[in-house]
Amino acid sequence: MLNIDRETDEKKIKKVETTATINNDKDFFLRRAIQVAKRSAQQGNLPYGCVLVDEQGNVLLEGENSVITDNDVLAHAEVNLLHIASKRYAPEFLKNCTIYTSDEPCPMCASAIFWSGVGQLVFGLSQARFFAEFGRKNSHITFDLSCRELLKFSGRQVKIAGPLLEHEVLCLHRRT
Ligand SMILES: [Zn+2]
User: Fold this and answer.
1) How far apart are CA 2 and CA 156, in angstroms?
2) Which PANTHER family would you find in this protein's record (predicted)?
3) Ligand 1 center from residue 125 Cα (angstroms)
4) How close is the Cα of 108 to the center of ligand 1, in Å?
5) How far apart, in Å, are the Cα atoms of 86 and each of 52, 63, 94, 125?
């Protein structure tokens, strides 16, 4: 179980002990984001998760979705994480960090990544694959604009890698 202080702004974020690692493998950190997504689901939220990793491969923050427990439709995993990251770290530092997300960020979260100054994005399941698998019936979760399409209009470049490990993320969504 997580020891999360429900009374603080950081309740959606598990502060992670800094563990230096030289493992910069994308799959390694994506799988960690997928674990966070599983934890979000276990907490009664939607199965989305992300992690923020610095240049040395330290996991600085984990972000859970908290849309349901916070009754906040804006409480996507990335936004929750980036609120903390932007208070804690300068954009000059964040430009050398990477956010790994279980799923391709929605337009709100892709914009938040831009505004935060985070330099790199690696995502798992693409929006297109998600819609192909689960349909587009729920208009509340359908915003048909890929993060690449959106961020090509941004004033600074956010480097994007993905989709990756789509099967693993799909398995998670099918179970939840
Ligand atoms: Zn989002």
Assistant:
1) 36
2) CYTOSINE DEAMINASE FAMILY MEMBER (PTHR11079), TRNA-SPECIFIC ADENOSINE DEAMINASE (PTHR11079:SF202)
3) 13
4) 5
5) 12, 13, 8, 25
* Beta-strand relationship, 98-103 and 159-161: unpaired
pLDDT tens column, 45-76: 999 999 999 999 999 999 999 999 999 999 99
- Residue 2 — φ and ψ, nearest 5°? -85, 145
Q: Per-residue pLDDT tens for 129-139?
A: 999 998 887 77
Find the catalytic residue in 55, 62, 64, 78.
78
DSSP 174: H
One-letter amino acid identity for 137? K
- Whole-number Å distance, alpha carbon 77 to ligand 1 midpoint, is 7
Exposure class string for 87-114: b at 16+ Cβ within 10 A, else e: eebeeebbbebbbbbbbbbbbebbbbbb
pTM of the full structure:
0.86
Q: Give the distance (Å) from ligand 1 centre to CA of residue 97.
A: 19
How many Å lie between the centroid of ligand 1 and the Cα of residue 110? 7
Locate the DSSP E strands across 34-143: 49-53, 59-64, 98-103, 120-125
DSSP state of 136: S
The verdict on whether 78 is a catalytic residue reads yes
